[in-house]
Design brief:
Length: 117
């Protein structure tokens, strides 16, 4: 697992399926923001949200989405990549799901350019 900080926001992301499980099911608080490159295997990214904000500042949201793409199979794709963004409370791990696999109850999508665009 890795972490970085941007504008006072702590960002955590997994480097393995087990890291992703830990981030999404143990470390994330309900109000934290969760990101993942849609349709690709890759990191679960959370941005800590102790203030309970309803939206992140755009630079923080963009960086978290970029980390989701850079640490996924989408990193070699071209063009814009769809990233799912949800509150951690809307990320569920059903019993029997393999490591790193989750279901989203509510989410929105945003698009970021891959590094090769």
């Amino acid at each position: 697992m890795k972490e970085e900080e941007l504008d006072g926001f702590e960002i955590l992301y997994g480097t393995s399926a087990r890291d992703n499980d830990k981030i999404s099911t143990e470390l994330a608080e309900g109000q934290d923001f969760w990101f993942h490159a849609a349709g690709y295997a890759g990191s679960h990214v959370i941005v800590r949200n102790p203030q309970g904000l309803s939206d992140l500042p755009k630079p923080v949201e963009k960086r978290a989405a970029e980390l989701a793409v850079l640490n996924s199979k989408a990193k070699n794709a071209r063009g814009k990549i769809e990233v799912h963004l949800a509150f951690a409370r809307d990320v569920k791990k059903p019993k029997g799901f393999p490591p790193g696999k989750v279901l989203l109850k509510n989410y929105r999508s945003l698009k970021v350019y891959s590094p090769h665009s």
